[in-house]
Structure prediction request, 446 residues.
Amino acid sequence: MKKSLIWIVVLVLSVSMVVVFSFAGCKVEEKTPAEEATPVEEEVVSEKEQVTINFMADTRSELDKMVELLPDFEKETGIKVNYMALQETPLRSKTGLELSAPSTDISVVMLDFVFLFKYAKVGYLEPLDNYMEAIETFKKEDFQKPFIDACSYEGKLYGLPLYHDCNILMYRADLFAKYDLNVPKNYDELEQVAKVIHEEEPGVTGIAMRGQRGYGVNEWSWPTFLWGFGGSYYTEDMKGNLDSPEAIAALEYYTNLLNNYGPEGVANYSYVEVQTDLMEGRTGMIIDSATLGIRCEDPEVSAVAGKLGYAVVPGNVDVQPGFYSWTLAIPANSQNKEAAAKFAAWLASPEIAATVGWSAPNQALEEVYQISAYADYDQSKPLIKVMKDSLALADADYRPRIDEASEVGTAVSIAISEVLAGEKSAKDALEDANKEVNRILEEAGY
Prediction:
């Protein structure tokens, strides 16, 4: 056994020596340690340069165009963007959860400007000034000052506006010409025009507006009428004012107009259904965000492109088209903030904004809304003029920007929905809503 073991050891040693001598007899190109490590180092550097950020937003068509442009942005910057799409109401809910969490993997969020103050004051949002100062393409003066002010808190910028937006009246100018109708300036005239189109034009409703329950859904459109009848959300001493005669009249008018001359199922209409009805020629008028007009003028998707007219919203006591902007904000508890800021500045830059279809900054407003008046109806005006005239009337507190705005808005939206469904009278629904609003205000310390 011992001899066998010795021979095995000798054999192994002999083979090893042959291998060593074989390599020694060959010419092997020597490499420095640095040269040998080069492939590994290049891979590590590449991984470090590639930054991935998550962008959480809703599902609007402008973001489909953004997706087409992302490869160029990623190639230029090395920043990969994951677009996380949610419907509008779930987006608002998830935003609150992500911002208030100890950390989040959301790098940039599309945020309703109304909530900027609420989130900025508790430190949930990252101030953008230092990041934007380092980006040559960003200039505050490219945006209308009221919108920059609405995205700022205590002198610091917390969001980049994507829209300079408000409600306008959009109508089928070809049908107005056909039935010799005038652009309505008050609510009696609006109802009369809706009645004529609804009764005279087969398969076309008189008007479509939002009826779906939810903060920022029917509660975005109805305040135009609340202000238009002389009403308001609150009294001067911050008590609910939704049970006032003016507010009741506004809700009675709004719901009667939709129930009498609107589409079936209007109680479920968000901006998507309102826009679709206009694009497909199923309604004669809408009052909604001006941004919808741009999509309805796209001949590739709209049957009424080139047939539309635009006007400032009608009103009785006051004319209030609203004030709105979706914004880009960066969570304070997120990572990769510098990369996130570069992406936000890119998406809100004059060139990209105009290509995608935002209405901010000013250059995009001029380009995107540059739509000629309908030639065969002499009351038509260019969309850009209507938009500028409307923005001049817009008030950032169209829906007052208090921290409890979503709770108040939800109570209002429920009242609108109940009256549309015939479950309550406008008086009863708004009295109940006002009690809820006062409860919310009292608990908040007003």
Remarks:
- The domain at 167-324+379-444 is CATH 3.40.190.10 (D-Maltodextrin-Binding Protein; domain 2).
- The chain has two domains: 51-158+326-359, 167-324+379-444.
- The CA atoms of residues 68 and 442 lie 48 Å apart.
- Confidence is low (pLDDT under 50) at residues 1-48.
